[in-house]
Amino acid sequence: MNISGLCLFFCLIFTIVSCDEHDHRYEDGSEVVLWMNTVGPYHNRQETYNYFSLPFCRGTKTEISHYHETLGENILGVELEYSGVEINFKRDKPRTDICEKTMTPEAYDELTYAIKNHYWYQMFIDDLPIWGIVGEMDESGKSAFIWTHKKFEIAYNEDRIIDVNLTSEAKVNIKPNTVLKFTYEVIWKPTSIPFAKRFDKYLDPGFFQHKIHWFSIFNSFMMVLFLVGLVSMILLRTLRKDYARYGKDDDLDDMERDLGDEYGWKQVHGDVFRPPAHPILFASLIGSGYQIATVSTLCILTTIAFDLYTERGLLFSTAIFLYAASSVVNGYAGGSLYARMKGQLWIKQLLVGAFLVPAIICSVAFLVNFISIYYGSSRSIPFTVMLSVTAICLFIILPLTAVGTVLGRNISGEPNVPCRTNAVPRPIPEKKWFMEPNVIILASGILPFGSIFIEMYFIFTSFWAYKIYYVYGFMLLVFLILAVVTVCVTIVATYFMLNAEDYRWQWTSFLSGASSAFYVYLYAVYYFFFKTKMYGMFQTAFYFGYMALFSLGLGIMCGTFGYIGTQAFVRKIYSIKID
Ligand SMILES: *[C@@H]1O[C@H](CO)[C@@H](O)[C@H](O)[C@H]1NC(C)=O
């Protein structure tokens, strides 16, 4: 299968992590492994702990002790441990003991706490996730009951496992200093569902393919058509008028020009290609934006092609791999832009460009990790993973960025602007409040945000609640729509700015594009308070930390879209000889 090929590829890349994905085929009677993963409060999806951190016990078999995780799984907090429960392919098992556990007062307190907080646990059989609830409180909320019997119903099709259902039975009231006996049973059933369709039961077409979803895509699409039409109409008309006025030059005497017929954007032709403030940061942001856009596009396309979401952590590993590999793009875009702006400190730019995004991600991850170690969560990132991430940064990202930068400086590092830049910057005239860059920047984010916020709801829900996002075709559409809307809106915003004789368009176009991410973050705050029931410091920090990262990445990407579009537009309108 292609997936295994891909997996092998990753194994070669991340030699520190080993992959032991089997081929999902079993002989009659051969061992089927039940992996215990994590346990945690239902409402806090990311606050997970190792299953055996609660006073549960293992079965008697001990051959396999720990599963070797891939880098992606490791970062996502997957901690598979062997349950010690014996299951054999196509062999029914009557009710059998797993183990007994004495309820010491501490164990009793821990379990009661877990049951009060609606703890759920997750297991895997043959890579299929299974969820179960630890227990229930009685009506009065005073005494805790725990489910002690696990009934597995497993459906098979020839030599493959298709479906697993878990039923929790035998509710027992827990009391200190008693003995709890855990049991299980296994029932095998034949089915005709093909292996390729076994993941379908986890997907929720009723949620994702809802009319609202289709409608929102349609709506955004209409908006794009309208916006593109509007932008091209306004600009064509205005520009034609401007050009026509300018084209009359030959007929009119020069007097008229000297008397100030030039107005608006043409006035600033001597400043418009002046490099922006903070060129190193600017070039690095644009380079990173190119890289993030590349990674997102490739991730969406590979997921559409290979259904990456069916394998634990695979999408995440793919994203890390693609990010590292696309550092060349970052170096090329950032380095050549910096060279075109006649920047001299190119090594500094190279370092800033290579590590800007990784450094931000690592610092947020570090803070969240700190809290998660304090909580003892399975989300805390092991030292070996930190080492391998550092190794990827130093030995893959840095050299590839350097290669990209050198290529970029040599291939397209020549400044090739259509107008000369005056030696002395022109003063920027006073303007109305709504023409101030900050106002324009904030206003530009509204339309792009409007085109994506329904998709944001679906993405947030699948990440923070128990849904698997699988409609990557929708995502691709929305991604394209977002890019087009952002470009249109920033072009209009820049045109207004230039007409107000404010020539600082580079940062403004970047920030106008990026500002939709600010609204996404505001929406995330709303979502946290009104759509989820998360609580506790760990989950809250995790939510706001990673949402900030998400918004930031989105912002850098959209800002880059805005800059790319505007830059082409500005070159176009100034490329008719003006001076
Ligand atoms: C699991 O439950 C679903 C829904 O109740 C049912 O359609 C399916 O056949 C069950 N699978 C097995 C193996 O019992």
From TrEMBL:
<comment type="similarity">
    <text>Belongs to the nonaspanin (TM9SF) (TC 9.A.2) family.</text>
</comment>
<feature type="transmembrane region" description="Helical">
    <location>
        <begin position="439"/>
        <end position="460"/>
    </location>
</feature>
<keyword id="KW-1133">Transmembrane helix</keyword>
<keyword id="KW-0812">Transmembrane</keyword>
<feature type="transmembrane region" description="Helical">
    <location>
        <begin position="381"/>
        <end position="407"/>
    </location>
</feature>
<feature type="transmembrane region" description="Helical">
    <location>
        <begin position="510"/>
        <end position="529"/>
    </location>
</feature>
<feature type="transmembrane region" description="Helical">
    <location>
        <begin position="541"/>
        <end position="564"/>
    </location>
</feature>
<dbReference type="Pfam" id="PF02990">
    <property type="entry name" value="EMP70"/>
</dbReference>
<dbReference type="GO" id="GO:0072657">
    <property type="term" value="P:protein localization to membrane"/>
</dbReference>
<dbReference type="GO" id="GO:0016020">
    <property type="term" value="C:membrane"/>
</dbReference>
<feature type="transmembrane region" description="Helical">
    <location>
        <begin position="318"/>
        <end position="338"/>
    </location>
</feature>
<feature type="transmembrane region" description="Helical">
    <location>
        <begin position="472"/>
        <end position="498"/>
    </location>
</feature>
<feature type="transmembrane region" description="Helical">
    <location>
        <begin position="214"/>
        <end position="236"/>
    </location>
</feature>
<feature type="transmembrane region" description="Helical">
    <location>
        <begin position="350"/>
        <end position="375"/>
    </location>
</feature>
<feature type="signal peptide">
    <location>
        <begin position="1"/>
        <end position="19"/>
    </location>
</feature>
<dbReference type="InterPro" id="IPR004240">
    <property type="entry name" value="EMP70"/>
</dbReference>
<protein>
    <recommendedName>
        <fullName>Transmembrane 9 superfamily member</fullName>
    </recommendedName>
</protein>
<keyword id="KW-0472">Membrane</keyword>
<keyword id="KW-0732">Signal</keyword>
